[in-house]
Design a protein that fits this description.
Layout: H1 3-10, H2 16-70, E1 73-74, E2 82-86, E3 104-111, E4 117-123, E5 128-144, H3 161-166, E6 169-176, E7 187-194
Antiparallel strand pairs: 1-2, 2-3, 3-4, 4-5, 5-6, 6-7
């Protein structure tokens, strides 16, 4: 056998079996890389969702908690979705929405049209501030006369004048998720604040 004929046999190319094995190996490696990228992407979305939702919730909890603690009372007519507080900022014990409109503060939720709600803080003077954008089912207020963990102890809403005067605590439930259907599941945050300046 000559050197030329030996070289020709070695350069005949790939067999069908070798081609199939190479294709399967490339497919398996591609599937592994694709799966890793998808898992990583989902983890990044979930982390981002958690961070944005917690940031919005922290802002609402801090600001709303401060308003409830500083208030002198809850207005009659307050509902589970609309909280109206009187915050006597100048300590003159005069509640007048006309002469002191910034002392009447309303917390409410408004649908953003995307399945989420915006949390708004407004005053009788017309100042409206957007507090958060990531609430799913909104903000729920429960009015209590004494500390309790029971939902049945909530005063009926809208509050009557007598129940508004008797309210000493407000339990707030926030349901939030910043990236609907793409990140983490809905989260619920509940806290109770005492009205400290009740006259």
């Amino acid at each position: 056998m000559s050197a030329f004929s030996a070289r020709v046999r070695d350069d005949q190319g790939l067999t069908l079996v070798e081609l199939l094995v190479a294709t399967v190996l490339v497919g398996v490696l591609g599937a592994i890389v694709t799966t890793a990228v998808l898992i990583s992407n989902k983890q990044v979305r979930t982390s981002s969702d958690e961070a944005v939702g917690l940031a919005d919730t922290r802002i609402v909890v801090e600001r709303l908690g401060r308003d409830i603690r500083a208030s002198r009372g809850v207005d009659a007519g307050a509902t589970s979705g609309n909280l109206v507080l009187w915050i006597d900022q100048n300590s003159d014990y005069v509640r007048n929405a006309t002469s002191q409109p910034d002392e009447i503060v309303t917390w409410s939720v408004v649908s953003s049209g995307s399945g989420q709600y915006n949390t708004l803080r407004s005053t009788a003077g017309g100042t409206v501030q957007l507090q958060s954008r990531t609430l799913v089912s909104g903000l729920a207020f429960c009015y209590l006369t004494k500390p309790s963990d029971l939902a049945s102890d909530c005063l009926p809403t809208p509050l009557s004048a007598a129940n508004a005067a008797a309210t000493r605590l407000v339990r707030v439930t926030l349901n939030y998720d910043s990236a609907l259907k793409y990140g983490s599941d809905d989260r619920i945050n509940t806290f109770t604040e005492r009205i400290r300046n009740v006259s």
